[in-house]
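Fold it.
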Amino acid sequence: MKIVRLLTICLLMAATVEVKAQFGPQKDMDSKYATELIKPGKSAPDFKMQTPDGKKFQFAKWAKGKTVVLDFWASWCPDCRKDAPEVVRMYETYKQHGVEFLGISMDTDVEAWKQAIEKFGIQYPQVSELKKFRETDIAKAYGVKWIPSMVVVGPDGQVKLSTVLPYKVDQYLKELTTGAYVPAQKGERVSIDGDHGKLSALIQKPELKPGEKCPMVIFCHGFSGNKNGPLFELICDTLQQHGIASIRFDFNGHGESEGEFKDMTVPNEIEDAKKVVAYVRDLRYVSDLAIVGHSQGGVVSAMTAGQLSEELGEPAFKAVGLMAPAAVLRDDAIKGNTMGKMYDPFDPGEYIELFGGLKLGGNYIKTAFTLPIYETAAKYQGPAIIVHGNGDRVVPYTYGERFHHIWPKSEYYMMEYYDHGFSQNVYRATDLVAQFLLQTLK
């Protein structure tokens, strides 16, 4: 046994450099492919081109006084074809706010260009020089060295944003049209008996008539998080606007709840979640229930749904939402690596010192070793949504993908380039979950 322990520790020490690198700041694609793209603050150069039907088009005349997104693409470009559905979605989303889109094609074959427009259902105007990419005047004027590229031009004719990443354009337009996220922490504060003391919770609900009921969504935060922040608040605000209540709470040893972090385990967080479910079921104005969790809270949500469904003999929730569910936590405990902290998994001691002075209890590691995450979650077979980024360096997206495989009624969204906290564009991730909940609960 001593030899096994020694070999395990040596292997873990060898992996330390790689693990630490995962938590550092990461460069995005703009640092490589948008270095020569026209910069914000510059006047957008005017240009004249032709439409697919051969009609003349002048940019300055058409764009005057408008916010315009220039989409540089081509039918022959694989990345352009991959991004096309997302660009079309953005157009459909923001056209109601007066934002215009203009496709600038690097095609030389008119028929191929037309076929791609039809295939992707592109409704916004399209223009081209019908020249090879490197020979076009527009590429030189705007510094386009890579496609797809996107440039946002403001009503004043100035460039506001230039990037090769659609999610940056989406975030810019979201904040431009609906305003940036501002922490509100609004709602009714309540205290609920949890597994390790009182749990601090916040309820948001719509205005209801006497005797009227509405659905409620329970939110479970991640490993070292709490009930506040844009990931949950943005969803809660949307739900409230559409007649759905929500409750988000701090697990034991987190935020404003009682208990110590070192006593926290996934099993006792599941018990916390169950107590919140029981509390909500007793609220007279609540009809259907749903549960949403991020990271470790996703594991707790999935396992809570499974356990309660087994007890009831039917799906315990009308809907479940998982955002970057951290089912990797069991494998991490077995490997002796939690959040980049290395330890002997066979003898973790009373606790492990983590970042920020947090102490991870040895009991957390011991219980994680045999945690039947997917086996338990599979006992829930109702509607679900799983959202995960393929740029998540804390929890590989395949862990989220597996939930989709065990839940036939689930929707799965793998978000290109997104990290564990969806920091690339939190609005997109929260909109996906909010829209799913609205469609499922209303």
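The first strand starts at residue 48 and ends at 50.
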